[in-house]
Amino acid sequence: MSSVAVVILNYNGKELLKKFLPGVIEHSGSARIIVADNNSHDGSMDLLTKEFPSIEIIPISSNLGFCGGYNYALQQVKADYYLLLNSDVEVTANWLTPLIDLLDGDDTIAAVQPKILSYHQKNKFEHAGAGGGFIDKLGYPFCRGRLFDQLEEDKDQYDDSVPVFWSSGACMLIRSSLFKSFNGFDETFFAHMEEIDLCWRLKREGHQIYYCGASQVYHMGGGTLSESNPRKTYYNFRNGLILLIKNLDPLNLAVTLPIRVILDTMAAFMFLAIGQGGNFMAVAKAHFFILTRLFGLLRKRTGSPYEVDLIYQGSIVFDYFLSGKSKFKELDFNNPK
Fold first, then answer.
1. Among candidates 26, 220, 219, 199, which has minimal Cα distance to 114?
2. 203: CB partners within 8 A, 6+ apart
């Protein structure tokens, strides 16, 4: 039987741990449960020591972010599979077994995510992963069940198990051997889109990423940074460009990167027009980061080959904002417009 370590990365999430950790303990069977603490200062460590003595703790001396925190912690964890779980996720009975069974049954699958629904609206999918992640030709991520901020109602339409482009970092089961051999998360990302980068790198080497609808969790979202936080805007715009620079083939990168910069700039001025000066500056800072570190980022282009499947060849921006397509089923992967 494959060994599993459920690893929760925590930063000042004392109240989230108090709320969601009991369910993880109750429903995770024989899996080891570990909390890696990113140098919290809200009493998280005291809470774990006093109220959850069965939990293993990995203290981290400084806040290394999502990427660095997991890379540091997982170096110290021995298990066949790592289950990376956000601290703001409510798990359900039998959530773990279908994920394990999927990896046990197919050696080509590197990572898998469950159905991710909203904790606040439990009949709807949640932004970070929903029914499995995809990406369009310009590098904009989207999900079955979520296009931009449009969330679908769960009507069992994604109760299947299918290959996807990326698995959500909010709840991802991944083979430990592959996480290590691919050097984990790229710490340049710090937080946001690092899981897409890892999945893209895995796919470029022939591994599959899967979604498993037989497993279900509820994600609160915004546990560390809210959607409107300029810092999150900065990471989203900056990391979206890093993702392309690292993983697109040379020809597509030469065409796509200028288009993305133009679209990002348009988005920045839209922020300014609606009075969100902080988000405007966040986009400007993201572009400055890319401009000043472009050659260093290009040196990160390792591995082969660059061509992978399941990239949507249409434009989600065009489909959503101009064509009015708001659901995944309205996208045609065979004949994108």
1. 219
2. 165, 209, 308, 309, 310
Give yes or no for a contact between 116 and 128, defined as CB atoms under 8 angstroms apart.
yes
Give the separation between CA 285 and CA 304, rounded to whole angstroms: 31
Amino acid letter, residue 108: T
Q: Which residue has the tokens 């590098």?
A: 139
Distance (Å, rounded) from C-alpha 244 to C-alpha 248? Answer: 5
Please tell me the distance from the alpha carbon of residue 10 to that of residue 27, in angstroms, as a whole number.
Answer: 20
- For 212-255, the pLDDT digits (tens) are 999 999 999 865 555 668 999 999 999 999 999 999 999 999 99
> What are φ and ψ of residue 291, in 5° steps?
-60, -40
CA-CA distance, 225 to 108, in Å (whole number)? 34
Cis peptide before 305 (omega within 30 of 0): yes
Q: Which pLDDT score is estimated for 223?
A: 52
Question: Helices marked H in the chain — which ranges?
Answer: 14-27, 44-51, 65-74, 97-105, 176-181, 194-204, 230-247, 250-273, 277-298, 316-317
User: Can you state the percent helix, strand and coil of the chain, rounding each to 5?
Assistant: 40, 20, 40
Residue 23 token pair: 């369910």
